[in-house]
Amino acid sequence: MSTRTSPWPHGIPCWADVSATDVRASGAFYSAVLGWAVPEPDEQWGGYVTAAAGGQLVAGIGPLQGGSAAWTVYLATDDVAGLAARAPEHGGTVLAPVMDVGPLGRMAILADPSGATFGLWQAGTMIGASRVNEPGALTWEDLRSTDPGAARAFYGALFGYAYDPVEMAGPDYTTFRLPSEQAPLGGMGPMMGSPDGTGSHWLVYFGVADTDAAVAAAEAAGGSLLAPAKDTPFGRMAWLADPDGAAFTVMSIEASQPAPDRSG
């Protein structure tokens, strides 16, 4: 099992959460698809819940606060205030200012120059996900951008990422990584099959033991299939939406290429 107890290094995708019209119903859906254990919503935290797989935290679910349901990826930092202040200098927008989340940590919500929303997380007692690269846990993140070049410049300025092209993934798609590491953390590229009218966004990938079984469970629980399951050099994948329309991907962890090393 790939678990972690210490804070994630600066720039590593460390958490993801989804907005939902009904947190309980959303929890039931993801429990059916990904095997999560989801507690009852706690009003102390505004109805937000943290889901677990294998006894370790993997992702969050929170009430939809206007707009459309979507997944948000959080990037780790040891200076959330500093990054939030610098983001506008590079074309970003602060959507929700820096706030303390009790003793758990500090966060902010930003948008990159093409409009993709993402979060910043500075760990306190909560590091973010403590289980990754396993069934039910995050395995990959893609930025689908209307302007990949501008996006790479923006994230590179804030996090110092290095970028590597992936020939088999098509033009203008790269992986991103910490300069001191060789393992990729995720990808950045064009919209890559997103429906017309879709804005720039981050797409989360969750590991599953059986992609086809996860698709069947999603459809039975009220989700929809956005793109059929297919075999890729990185594992068998399927693009799904939950009952609220939030898009995500499931990815077989029995892949010919290992999942990214987030050890930092």
TrEMBL record:
Top-level taxon of origin: Bacteria
Species of the source: uncultured Frankineae bacterium
Name this protein carries in UniProt: VOC domain-containing protein
PROSITE patterns (UniProt xref): VOC (PS51819)
Domain VOC: 11-123, 136-253
Signal sequence, renumbered to the chain: none
A Pfam family it matches: Glyoxalase_6
